[in-house]
Specification:
Blueprint (H helix, E strand, L loop, with lengths): L5 H7 L16 H12 L1 H16 L6 H22 L5 H9 L2 H23 L1 H9 L14 H22 L2 H28 L21 H14 L7 H4 L7 H30 L14 H9 L2 H35 L6 H4 L10 H20 L1 H31 L20 H20 L3 H4 L3 H4 L1 H24 L10 H11 L2
Helix pairs in contact: 1-22, 2-9, 2-12, 2-14, 3-10, 3-12, 3-14, 4-12, 4-18, 5-6, 5-17, 6-8, 6-14, 6-16, 6-17, 6-21, 7-14, 8-14, 8-16, 9-12, 9-14, 14-16, 16-17, 17-18, 17-21
């Protein structure tokens, strides 16, 4: 049964936006924080992408980590203000709709939704990088000598994990939050221990980060060009903190809880992840070892090199836990976004997708649908690994675009004197005050720069032929174009809150009464 306390109702303020409470409001402060930090997932992202950053720019690639923090922190601060004003499910979609227009909101929601489903497929692939290292029996297909052994095995392991995240999400948000919080607790402890052990095994000083070590020599643009490419490894990690706000309708006191959760998720991820990257490079026995910059080596190889054998195995298990809760968080975020858009009849079959199971108080059909589509996308990885790589990279671009569709309209409202909104005077919650305009400008400039850097046609990242090299334009054009066809011919004529989810006069009266207590 949903928890409708007077304080929870007045703090949530859901009826103000024309919706009635239908989800289970039961997530506490740590659960909200865990949702954001598990999506970022330091042990998933850093271990999955370290080799790419190091292979491209060497030790100095570490400087991209604080650079990404500054930009994403500006975005996060904007989101914190919005989370305090608009505690709604599928936050990015609803924020862009309220700040911009129905079309802007739909576009950001569509990009974010498709990107989230692809991201789920990409995240579960990390199991293949870790489980067979722990025990050879997890290589279910072949022995790795066949051309598709690893890809096919990755699909099996990933599909099993997606099946589990589907079941967990279908059974209710309380179970999801409990498992996610437990996993994040394990991940944070393991990450801190990895950081400490790597630091104790340091064999060189920080001066290693002050030289290019020859990376980028002979290339157009020199080291700067190599650094921009390497920075993608950091940019691919530090996002997803909005998951804490996307669960706003299921969080206790969301106007207070979600903004704090967003900030804590970003800062914790930066400090712990940055520490691991720093001391990994300082502790690696040989900087010239080709395995460091290899996809079958990377950060896992460094950890195994400096740690006592059995201890390294324990940390591999912790990485698997991190991958699992990250997948769970990505799946959960995609479900809430599907629900939020469907509730506005902004997706095909909106009434069915927005239906909340009366027993578990969770959107059941979106949980299953997202899982099925993610598994189908996984299958592409077997025969067309380059296309899958392009799609996963483009998914990150689409998320940055969706963020930009929030910070951009927000900046416009600031410049025209329409922010903060006069019709939603909520005191006592997070605000940037006089710093708001400056931070908002930084967020927009950062988002624009990252989209350009991520989308820049590079054969080294996107490969060939031309439609892969120019994949950011080609694939995003196809994805957005397909959605716009539906929006233009049908969607725009029917978008509006479904009667089954619209707040009734009784709901609004109850909210008004609760807010005066």
């Amino acid at each position: 049964m949903a928890k409708h306390t007077s304080s929870g109702r007045s703090d949530g303020g859901l009826e103000h936006f024309g919706y009635r409470q239908s989800l289970d409001r039961s997530i506490g402060a740590f659960g909200s924080f865990a949702a954001g930090v598990s999506y970022i997932s330091i042990l998933t992202g850093t271990f999955q992408l370290f080799y790419f950053g190091y292979h491209t720019a060497g030790p100095a690639y570490l400087w991209s980590w604080p650079m990404v923090l500054v930009g994403q922190l500006a975005v996060a601060l904007c989101f914190m203000e919005l989370a305090a004003k608009y505690p709604l499910a599928g936050s990015v979609y609803n924020w862009s709709k309220l700040l911009g227009s129905r079309f802007v909101g739909w576009s950001s929601g569509w990009l974010m939704l498709t990107a989230s489903v692809v991201s789920l497929s990409a995240t579960v692939l990390a199991l293949q990088m870790n489980l067979p290292r722990f025990w050879g029996g997890f290589q279910i297909i072949g022995d790795g000598s066949g051309p598709y052994d690893f890809a096919e095995n990755a699909v099996i392991l990933g599909s099993i994990l997606i099946l589990l995240t589907t079941i967990i999400n279908a059974l209710g948000v309380q179970l999801m939050a409990m498992i996610n919080s437990s996993g994040v607790f394990i991940e944070l402890i393991a990450a801190c221990l990895i950081l400490i052990i790597l630091a104790l095994h340091s064999v060189r000083g920080p001066e290693v980060f002050l030289t290019t070590h020859g990376y980028g020599a002979g290339a157009s643009g020199g080291f700067f060009s190599a650094f921009l490419v390497a920075s993608l490894a950091s940019g691919y990690v530090m996002y997803g903190f909005d998951t804490a706000s996307s669960l706003g309708e299921e969080t206790l006191e969301p106007r207070r809880t979600a903004p704090k959760a967003i900030l804590r998720a970003v800062l914790a991820s930066f400090v712990i992840g940055g520490g691991i990257l720093l001391f990994a490079i300082l502790s690696v026995p040989d900087l010239q070892d080709p395995k460091i910059g290899s996809s079958d080596g990377g950060l896992q190889y460094i950890v195994e090199s400096v740690m006592w054998g059995p201890l390294a195995k324990v940390f591999l298990v912790c990485i698997v836990v991190a991958v699992s809760v990250c997948s769970l968080a990505v799946h959960t975020a995609a479900i809430r976004l599907t629900f939020a858009m469907a509730r506005d009849n902004a997706l095909p079959f909106g009434e069915r997708l927005a239906r909340v199971n009366p027993k578990t108080q969770t959107p059941l059909i979106p949980a299953i649908l997202v899982g099925v589509i993610a598994i189908l996308i996984l299958i592409i990885n077997v025969g067309q690994p380059q296309i899958f790589t392009v799609l996963t990279s483009i998914a990150v671009i689409m998320i940055y675009l969706a963020y930009l569709m929030v910070t951009g309209p927000m900046l416009k409202k600031r410049l025209t004197g329409e922010w903060p909104p006069k019709d939603l005077a909520v005191g006592g919650y997070f605000t940037m005050g006089r710093w708001g305009l400056f931070v908002n400008i930084v967020a927009v400039l950062w988002g624009t720069g990252m989209v350009i850097n991520l989308a820049w046609p590079r054969e080294a990242i996107y490969g060939t032929p031309w439609y892969n090299t120019w994949g950011a334009l080609v694939y995003i054009g196809v994805i957005l174009g397909a959605g716009l066809l539906w929006f233009g011919f049908k969607g725009r004529h029917h978008i509006g809150t479904l009667a089954s989810h619209a707040a009734t006069p009784a709901d609004s009266a109850a909210e008004s009464e609760a807010s005066t207590r």
